[in-house]
Write a structure and sequence with these properties.
The chain has helices at residues 30-43, 63-71, 104-112, and strands at residues 2-5, 11-18, 45-46, 50-53, 59-61, 76-82, 89-93, 122-126, 135-136. By secondary structure, it is an alpha+beta fold. It has one domain: Conserved hypothetical protein from pyrococcus furiosus pfu- 392566-001, ParB domain.
C-alpha cells in the first residue's frame, strides 16, 4: 500500500484488491469492453489503476478496465482508493447521458440498492495527477 498525494489536493492510496470486493455503478459498453480487453491482453499489463471509493469499494472510473481484467482471469485489481467525499473529487454527467445531474450520494445509493447507471452516465473529475502505474497481468491472476 502506497499513500500518495498528487499534484492537486486529493489524497489516494495505490493498492491491489480482490476483484470480488469491487462494485461497479455503471454498465459497460460491449464493444469498448472487447477493445479494452484486447489491448490489455496484447500489452500484457494494465496501465492505469481503477479509481475506487474507499468505504464501499465503488468503482468511480475504470469500469471497462475492471470487467476486462476479470474477463482475462484476474482475481486481483490495482486501484487508487480515495475518500469520495473529498471536495476535490467532483461528479458530473457525460454529454448525452440520460440524466443531467447526479450526486455522490446517488452514486453510492445506486450500488447499495443493487442498481447500475447506463454506460457513460457519470463523469468523475479528480483534481490531482493519478499517474499510470503499469501492473503485469501475471501479477493479478
Amino acid at each position: 500500500m502506497v499513500a500518495r498525494r498528487g499534484s492537486g489536493n486529493v489524497k489516494y492510496e495505490l493498492v491491489i484488491l480482490e476483484a470480488h470486493l469491487l462494485k461497479p455503478h455503471e454498465q459497460s459498453i460491449p464493444e469498448l469492453l472487447e477493445e479494452t480487453m484486447e489491448a490489455i491482453r496484447r500489452e500484457g499489463y494494465v496501465r492505469a489503476p481503477i479509481l475506487v471509493e474507499n468505504r464501499h469499494y465503488v468503482i468511480l472510473d475504470g469500469h471497462h478496465r475492471y470487467h476486462a481484467l476479470v474477463g482475462l482471469g484476474c482475481k486481483r485489481i490495482p486501484v487508487y482508493l480515495v475518500d469520495y467525499f473529498q471536495e476535490d473529487i467532483r461528479v458530473g454527467t457525460w454529454p448525452g447521458a440520460i440524466v443531467d445531474h447526479v450526486t455522490k450520494e446517488e452514486v453510492i445509493k445506486k450500488v447499495l440498492d443493487g442498481e447500475l447507471f447506463p454506460p457513460k452516465t457519470t463523469r468523475h473529475i479528480v483534481k490531482t495527477d493519478l499517474r499510470d502505474s503499469p501492473i503485469a497481468l501475471d501479477d493479478l491472476r
